[in-house]
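Cross-posting from the modeling subforum.

Setting up a comparison between two proteins and wanted a second pair of eyes on the formatting. Protein 1 (sequence, then structure tokens):
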Amino acid sequence: MRSILKGAANAKNGQKKPGQLSATSAIQREELAHAQPPSPSELDNIKTHLDLILLTLESLAGIGSEAILRAAVELKLEGMLMDRVSLWRLRQSNPLRKSQGGRKKLDVEEARSLVLAICHLAREHQELIRRAVALLEQLTERDRQPHEASLLGDYLDKFCNTYQERMEDGEETSPDYLSHLALKLLIDLLFYSGSNGHRHLWLALIDRSFPVK
């Protein structure tokens, strides 16, 4: 537990309040357009990572399709994220998901659009994310379990239950692994809620993979 909290203090110290954010969505889109593109083999990891981060936001803040589509409109990304069906198909591209047919291929522009929408929503809920991470730090320092705080307990239950419902290996994946994954993603979300969150997330998409077991 302590190992996944190491970066949380730096993440909080580097945050700006929403009113102080200087980068516009247009600048952020331009930055991502010039960022390192993923290789074809990395796209599967990207699909998985993006869907899991959206699951983190959904489990913590109750964010659903409508909030994501609203963010797309505010960021002028509605050409990529047009409606609930297109968003559902993008999330279904996650290779870990239970499939009901052929999967949609996620292209780089769609991935960039989801990155911007995720970071926009994370900034909107930054105070909630901060509070959850602060609770996690306090409980860890006292050698207490995250479930002892209602905010974290509700988040973990929602994340784990939804993962088990949606993912092919959900029933076989251990609850301890899912709880660890949920807390790791929660701390990552704190980084993504900052003014440079889109950069942090894009680098994470390129550099990381998410082995499920």
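Protein 2 (same layout):
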Amino acid sequence: MKPPMGIKGYANQPEFRNDLGGNSVIGMREEKWVLMGTADGNYVLPEISVDWWDLKAKKMQTARIEPSALTVTGLGQSQPSSDPNPAAKANTEPAANNGLLTATEERVPSSQAPNTSIFKSWLFIALIALVVISLVGLGAWLFKRKSKATAINTLAKTSIAPLQALKQACQSNDAQAAFQGLQAWIREDLQLSPATIATLRAKADLPLKQALDDLSTVLYASTTHVWEGEELWQAVQNYLHHQSTDSTTSSPSNLGLVELYPSES
């Protein structure tokens, strides 16, 4: 607020607080002003407006305090006196008035000095608190990041490759585990689309097809069958060997291209 000419205003340090109620937060700022008139007359304190966001209406609102009229009197009047020597009193009153005004003018700024000191103290405390909160937040972020990296490393160390899992299932003659290992191997290593055992069977050689059919018979049969996983594991190894051999023989270096400039015989 800016007081009009002829009015001096002195404000204390504003006080801030938050009122929590329901699903809303109300921020409040309280200021106390001391107004002093320097001359007789009528004055108007300016309007005070505060913009705020209305959550219900979802738009900006403005709260206003209307202008206030202020009348200052008595500064130019002299009180009647029974003093027999009014001239002497008239000579002494200006000095007294000057001393009063000087004391007032000196007293008001002096009252601001503690407020300034308090403001600096609170500002220093706020800066320290901000630094501490920043350090705590940084430490929490680093700890979370380290924990996540540790968890990923632990998972990578403890996880078993799909082909290794399939081998263990075959060696332990566990048909259900072998079926799950096949699905993981098709999806992650072979990367067939769609990632199903039927897709692998369409691309497999005869031994692997037979081994896959035997596994399906054991899994979906109405009676319990004994399943030997050695045949499936051997078929998988042969399939991988043939795939590696085919990729090697199909490389450009083994195509046997005709020489561009054949030598004369």
